[in-house]
Amino acid sequence: QVQLVESGGGLVQAGGSLRLSCAASGNIVSINAMGWYRQAPGKQRELVGEITSGDSRNALDSVKGRFTISRDNAKNTVYLQMNSLKPEDTAVYYCNVQGHRWGFGRFDAWGQGTQVTVSS
Predict the structure, then answer these.
(1) 74 in helix, strand or coil?
(2) How far apart are CA 95 and CA 50, in angstroms?
(3) 114 contact partners, CB below 8 Å, separation of at least 6
(4) How many whole angstroms separate alpha carbon 40 and alpha carbon 54?
(5) Using one digit for the tens of pLDDT, what is the confidence trace for 7-36?
(6) How far is CA 73 from CA 3, 35, 41, 51, 84, in A?
(7) Cα angle at 35 between 39 and 9, to 5 degrees?
(8) For the chain, how long is the longest CA-to-CA vector?
(9) What per-residue confidence (pLDDT) applies to 54?
């Protein structure tokens, strides 16, 4: 079973910064894509940004220019650097990793979620 460990959430004032990390482990052969989603109260989960094994990236329009997604392939870790945070960025942020495991084929794993709260 693939495990994802997230860290870096918290409370920050508007205009501040936070950096989220998500480390994947569990007999991973390869990782195809790593991404971050978020879900605010009463809203659907939405993709914030993702990065593929070929370093292709896409991001939610509302975070472009403020958030940066990156990955460390040696550590199977994905990061989300969030700058110029706004109250509307408040949500639970979830890490998602898709790839292949030894002996088990494809996997699609989710982190436990980390709360990001931006005060005005």
Answers:
(1) helix
(2) 10
(3) 6, 7, 8, 9, 20, 92, 93
(4) 30
(5) 999 999 999 999 999 999 999 999 999 999
(6) 16, 13, 33, 11, 27
(7) 55
(8) 49
(9) 86
Q: Provide the token pair at 8.
A: 């870096």
The count of residues in the chain is 120
What's the CA dihedral at 81, 37, 70, 21 to 10 degrees? 60
Count of helices and strands (H, E) across the chain? 0, 11
What digits encode the pLDDT tens for the residues 30-70? 999 999 999 999 999 999 999 998 888 999 999 999 999 99
Please state the φ and ψ torsions of residue 89, each to the nearest 5 degrees.
-85, -5
Res 42: pLDDT: 94
Instruction: Locate 21 and state its tokens.
Output: 């990390």
List the structure tokens of 100.
């292949």
Signed CA dihedral, 40, 118, 80, 1: sign only: negative
Question: CA-CA distance, 104 to 34, in Å (whole number)?
Answer: 19
